[in-house]
Specification:
This protein is an alpha/beta fold and 389 residues long. The protein has helices at 37-55, 140-143, 146-159, 174-185, 198-206, 233-248, 255-264, 283-290, 311-317, 329-340, 359-365, and strands at 2-7, 10-15, 25-34, 73-81, 94-97, 100-103, 106-109, 123-127, 131-133, 166-170, 190-194, 211-213, 273-276, 296-299, 320-323, 350-354, 374-377, 385-388. It folds into 3 domains: 2-145 and 346-388, Alpha-Beta Complex (Quinone Oxidoreductase, Chain A, domain 1); 149-229 and 270-323, Rossmann fold (3-Layer(aba) Sandwich); 233-264, no CATH class. Helix 3 (146-159) crosses helix 4.
């Protein structure tokens, strides 16, 4: 079969053996596979990523000298079951799968390991236990975006955004756009999106952002109606004194119970929930400096370089800093069904489709934020490209 191999940062279309499904595994025909930002990073930074992964307990990440088939965002049709499968669906059933595969050497990340070739190919092997049938006749294009939408859904859940809170998304690349979509699908009333790119700002509006900001001319921190937010530390101190003076004017009022009640009904000061979706050095510190007091910052963007923050800035503002990765099987299924049920539409993210021969140029095109957000691969297309918009 044909597949795109990545070796020493070079991409090439090659003939490779058809993979054989092992115990509990399924072979599927790939209908669509998304090109992820992680693939762009892995192409040139895989050795650094592998070293970091090894420090966290996974030693199977791809290395630059290996022949790797990238691709972990895919939708396909069942071709063949391996031994020991439950064979839950007929051959030909359209499915998606979490990109993890159990081999004799352990569990590996599909599309990011030599032991688990990915979806930049005509066929790919998946784990039956991690496979889900695509419901409601959902198109292969939309189903292929289940994986990035699940990443965004996990980030939104970890952000614990109340419907009346403001969410601010810094960076409107594919993952930022997915976060915006999932925030609106979860009922958040005010979503602010910030990006320097006019094209990405337009896509953010299509994904449902209520306020879209060019940070070169307007601050995302002052672009929305603020509720229960404080301008600075002095405001917090003033509020504390004013509150105590008012409460103590009421005879025999146990003021500490009033504080507890205010906490219970959400009447205490709070900041927005900020989603960092850029992944470049310096951005986290910029957010810590600009965000209001008592904000919660969820780091979704993957910075592949050493970075520097000022912890005292976050301490003085009592900012909650969270880092997120991936999703669990329930969140993956939830994302699929949110797409299939029409609760979230990933279509604005899809800006092009290419055949295997067009993958290298697609990587180049994705480096320009004014051209593309998400390009899908159609392995059955023998042409260079099927559509780019």
């Amino acid at each position: 079969m044909k597949a795109v191999l990545c070796t020493d940062a070079r991409l090439r279309v090659s003939e490779v053996p058809v993979p054989t499904p092992g115990t509990g595994q399924v072979l599927i025909d790939v209908l669509r596979c998304g090109i992820c930002g992680s693939d762009l990073h892995a192409r040139v930074h895989c050795d650094e990523m592998a070293d970091l992964a090894a420090e966290t307990g996974y030693d199977g990440f791809m290395r630059s000298h290996q022949d790797i088939v990238l691709g972990h965002e895919f939708c396909g049709e069942i071709v063949e079951y391996g031994p020991g499968c439950r064979e839950r669906w007929p051959v030909g059933t359209r499915v998606v799968a979490l990109p993890v595969l159990r081999q004799s050497s352990g569990v590996h990340l599909t599309g990011l390991s030599a032991a688990a070739p990915g979806g930049y190919a005509e066929q790919v092997v998946v784990q039956e236990a991690m496979t889900i049938a695509v419901p409601n006749g959902l198109s292969a294009e939309k189903a292929a975006l289940t994986e990035p939408m699940a990443v965004a859904w996990h980030a939104v859940r970890r952000g614990e955004v109340g419907k009346r809170q403001t969410a601010i998304v810094i960076g409107c690349g594919p993952i930022g756009l997915a976060v915006i979509s999932m925030l609106k699908a979860s009922g958040v009333r005010t979503v602010v999106a910030s990006d320097f790119s006019p094209h990405r700002r337009a896509l953010a509006a299509q994904c449902g952002a209520d306020v879209v900001v060019d940070p070169a001319t307007h601050s995302p921190w002052t672009s929305y109606a603020q509720r229960n937010e404080l301008g600075g530390v002095r405001d917090l101190l003033d509020l504390g004194i004013d509150t105590m003076e008012r409460l103590q004017r009421v005879p025999k009022l146990p003021w500490w119970h009033a504080f507890r009640l205010a906490d219970a009904v959400g009447a205490t000061p709070s900041g927005p929930v900020v989603f960092e979706c850029v992944g470049l050095p310096g951005v986290i510190d910029q957010i810590l400096a600009g965000a209001p007091l008592l904000s919660r910052v969820v780091v979704v963007g993957v910075c592949m370089e050493a970075d520097r923050i000022r912890p005292a800035m976050a301490i003085n503002k009592e900012i909650d800093l969270r880092f997120v990765l991936g999703y669990d099987p329930r969140e993956f299924r939830q994302a699929l069904y949110m797409i299939a049920d029409g609760k979230v539409d990933p279509s604005p993210l899809i800006t092009g489709t290419v055949g295997l021969a067009g993958v290298e140029n697609a990587f180049t095109a994705l480096g320009n934020p004014e051209e593309h957000a998400k390009i899908l691969i159609d392995p059955k297309d023998q042409e260079f490209t099927t559509s780019i918009r």
